[in-house]
Amino acid sequence: MRSLASPFPKISEFRFLKLSPPQILVLGFAGVILIGTLLLMLPISSASGHSLRFIDALFTATSATCVTGLVVVDTGTYFSVFGQITILVLIQIGGLGFMTMATLFALLLKRKISLRDRLILQEAMNQSSMEGIVRLIRKVLLYSLIIEASCAALLALRWAVDMPFGRALYYGIFHAVSMFNNAGFDIFGGYRSLTGYVNDPTVNIIVMFLIVSGGIGFIVMSDLMDYRKSRRLLLHTKVVLSMTAALILIGTVVIFVFEFTNSRTLGPLNLGGKLWASFFQSVTPRTAGANTVDIAGLRQASQFFIVILMFIGASPGSTGGGIKTTTFTLMIGAVVSMLRGRDDIVLFRYRLAQERVFKALTITLLALLLIVSVSMVLSTTEGRPFLMILFETTSAFATVGLSMGLTPELTEVGKILICLTMFAGRLGLLTLAYALGPKQGKALYKYPEGKMIIG
User: Fold this and answer.
1) What pTM value is reported for the model?
2) Tell me: the pLDDT tens digits for 200-229?
3) Is pLDDT of 34 > 90?
């Protein structure tokens, strides 16, 4: 029965919430994309006053909601301020999750968060239990607001040197939200992203901080904030921070070495510029999508290495995509344990359950299957070099947004395929699998053990 104090219906009263939490998440994101598509098709959304085609509006709305950053029209020149703000709102909803935003309004209205709502939030935040889920959502909203606002102010002060303060403030807000949510959208125009600031330490540091902050996940941020009280870190936090640091360091060295003499990327830069560019291009494949050098101008070895970084992606419970750093760490741990003849995977003196290994293996194989399948189809429909197609497909799946220039020239079939890939990458393949066919309960019996030769 509805409370007299609250004229709004409870979320659990809606009939569609009889669906499972994964199905609700899929329908919720699809609904946000549809609304965004309709808004972007309005003449007021374009700078010229002309309506954007449905397929292009759908692609842009999907890319924004799935915080990817791949674009078929230039965001800075094609869209009006209304269109850009629409994209910005989609990025914020998509980055934090529509259930997180719904919870924000519920908290503002002093509405009670029901058990059903908590189950959906648990699925959305990729948590193993509902304990403390509303408290985590509050922290997510608080941390996001603080980081985005402070970095927007810093970027505005920096860009006020190059443009009027009002415009600099708008640019600061847009790019702070876009980069923290690992979306990669920019409004500088000409598809040039942040290439004009390749040598600028201030812009590089602020943007990389936004990317890493959004990519390590809110669980890690919460754990770091509580460290002064607890004096201990979760295993999850240790794994995420160590793998994130390792990937960034390795990526910086690899790009610096391979691109040092490349006249289209690092070659013309001084030593400081080379280091900043290498560092930035190592951070941005963590699903951010911004770039300070021409990605199409990179050597093939660097491009393929970035494909690997994009495939790994960010961390669980973050605004980023990919198979996640924890999944990759678990796979590495399984290989090391097998080579050492051990039965258990041990990380930071903790033994991990076999169920985690199966989940990591499932996520990795499903991701590979999706990327390979889409790349094979696109290689037929687009007629471009396979590395370019593989790069674009991986960028879409990992919700990165880096591009070698293929996206604006995609065919209709290609745009639909990339849209579906971005959607699958943002929601997660396991969530989609559970939405299409809910997972079964535990088996009541076991089959006899069989033996098979491996390797």
Assistant:
1) 0.89
2) 999 999 999 999 999 998 888 888 888 888
3) yes
Q: Quick one: pLDDT at residue 388?
A: 97
Is the pLDDT assigned to residue 442 strictly greater than 80?
Answer: no
Separation of CA 357 from chain center: 23
**What is the pLDDT, as a whole number, of residue 193?**
93
User: Residue 166: helix, strand or coil by DSSP?
Assistant: helix
The runs of H, that is alpha helices, within 184-270 are 201-216, 218-225, 227-230, 235-259
The arithmetic mean of pLDDT across residues 339-349, rounded, is 87
DSSP state of 123: H
Is 91:183 a contact under the CB 8 Å cutoff? yes
d(CA 61, CA 36): 5
Q: Which of 379, 301, 282 is nearest to 392 (CA)?
A: 379
Closest Cα partner for 287 from 344, 212, 235? 212
The band of 172, judged by pLDDT with boundaries at 50, 70 and 90, is: very high
- Which residues neighbour 354 within 8 Å (Cβ) at sequence distance 6 or greater? none
- Average the pLDDT over 120-141 and give the result: 66
46 Cβ neighbours under 8 A, 6+ residues apart: 52, 78, 79, 80, 83
Q: How many CB atoms lie within 10 A of CB 191?
A: 17
SS3 132: coil
Reduce the DSSP state of residue 345 to 3 states and report it. strand
Closest to 286 measured CA to CA, from 418, 428, 398: 398
In the predicted model, is pLDDT for residue 169 greater than 60?
yes
Residue at token pair 């994309």: 33
Quote the pLDDT of residue 2. Answer: 42
Q: Which tokens in the block code for residue 292? A: 């300070």
Q: What are phi and psi of 79, to 5 degrees?
A: -90, 145
CA-nearest of 9, 10, 60 to 35 is 60
> What confidence score (pLDDT) does residue 119 get?
62
Indicate the residue type of 81: V
Q: How far apart are the first and last CA of the chain?
A: 62
Which residues 6+ apart lie within 8 Å of 445 measured at CB? Answer: none
83-106 b/e (C-beta count within 10 Å ≥ 16 → b): bbbbbbbbbbbbbbbbbbbbbeeb
Mean pLDDT of the residues in the chain: 87
> DSSP characters for 375-392?
HHHHHHHT---HHHHHHH
Sign of the CA dihedral running 155, 158, 162, 168: positive
Place of tokens 């503002």: 108
Orientation angle between helical segments 386-397 and 412-427, nearest 10 degrees: 40
Percent residues over pLDDT 90 in the chain: 62
